[in-house]
Amino acid sequence: MRKLILYVDRDSGEKGRFFLKIIQKRMPGIKMHICRTVDTCVTEVNQTKSYMESPIIVLFTDNEDRLDDLYDKKQIYQDKKIVMVLPREKKRDNTAVIHRFFPRYFTYMDDQYDDLCDVLHKMIVQ
What we know:
By secondary structure, the chain is α/β, with parallel strands linked by helices. The chain has helices spanning about 15-25, 40-45, 65-70, 95-100, 115-125; strands spanning about 5-10, 30-35, 55-60, 80-85, 105-110. The protein is globular.
């Protein structure tokens, strides 16, 4: 079974806690590793040995600064299964930045993350 690597920065506050609570509730029994810093996420992704055990990486970027931090390390996410959660409020158009991660799916912060959980379930089953 595939593992989920969840990046939710330690400074993401209530939005991050709510996101984690929803994912953990909707995905019981799934092996998850929660990364609270970009460096921890990089280390966890680099520990993946083969494509067959390739984890699904969920990047929760609650503001544009975190998106920029992840973008600086984007090379480690190449050929990985990426799902992104993006801030709804934005100061600039991040479309080009987002697509450089080649995400399988991206969404914006919302109330219940139903669509995101459905996509993750399908990705895990594959």
